[in-house]
Specification:
The chain is 27% helix and 26% strand. The protein has 70 residues and is of the alpha+beta class. It has a three-stranded antiparallel β-sheet with strand order 1-2-3, covered by helices on one side. The protein is globular.
Length: 70
């Protein structure tokens, strides 16, 4: 399948990233909270979920110079 970007997330506005656990719909999901909006995203599996969340947090730490709220 072809992947097409539908937009972007300005990491400078992100306030926190949290794993979302709520039954079947929450499987491998995480929430990105920003000043502009809240996004619920889903990974394909646990490994991808961990990679997405960890890499996003690393980027936020780099941008801010301090750890992001979990």
């Amino acid at each position: 399948s072809e992947h097409v970007a539908r937009g972007f997330i300005d990491l400078r506005t992100v306030t926190s990233i949290k794993e979302f656990e709520s039954g079947k719909e929450g499987s491998y999901s995480f929430v990105i909270y920003s000043e502009e909006r809240t996004l619920l995203l889903r990974a394909v599996n646990k490994r991808d979920l961990d990679r997405w969340v960890n890499q996003l947090r690393l980027q936020l730490d780099y941008i801010r110079g301090s750890p992001v709220e979990k």
